[in-house]
Design a protein that fits this description.
Length: 75
C-alpha cells in the first residue's frame, strides 16, 4: 500500500520528534532501544522516517520517553 506524500511527511516528522525527545534526555538511540525494548535498527528506521510504526510502538516509545503519545504525533 502506497502512502500519500502528506502521510509520508507526517511519519518523518514523527521520527524527528522521537529524536528530539531522545536528545533532550541525552540518550543515544541504543539507550532508547534498551529502555523501550525495541531493536536498535527499528529505532533508527523510525527516527529517519523509513517505517510507519505500529500504534503499539508509539505507546511504547511514549512511555519510554515519558511523554504523552499525542506529543510524539504533534511534532
Amino acid at each position: 500500500m502506497s502512502l500519500s506524500p502528506g502521510v509520508e511527511e507526517k511519519i518523518k516528522l514523527f521520527g524527528k520528534t522521537v529524536r528530539r525527545f531522545r536528545n533532550e534526555k541525552g540518550w543515544t538511540m541504543k539507550r532508547l532501544a534498551e529502555i523501550a525494548e525495541i531493536e536498535l535498527s527499528q529505532i533508527h528506521r523510525i527516527e529517519t522516517g523509513k517505517i510507519n510504526p505500529k500504534l503499539s510502538t508509539i505507546f511504547i516509545l511514549s512511555e519510554a520517553l515519558d511523554v504523552k503519545p499525542s506529543e510524539l504525533l504533534v511534532g
